[in-house]
Amino acid sequence: MTVTPAQRIFSYAGLTLGDLDRRMSPEEIKAAYSVQYPELATAGIKGPEVVGDKLRWEFVVSIGAKG
Question: The whole model's pTM is what?
């Protein structure tokens, strides 16, 4: 019997973002993508959710009123 780890995928605003490095935590992946998407710096992480044979994490930016 061979055990294969599930592939990880990350999503943000309808985009599917690849797993940069399996050894990185979802928080580290979010920080790396925040260079390209600055709003991710304060985003939350939802997941993992099983989608087929993959594990999906979603980066969620909360939009609120200032003041």
Answer: 0.83
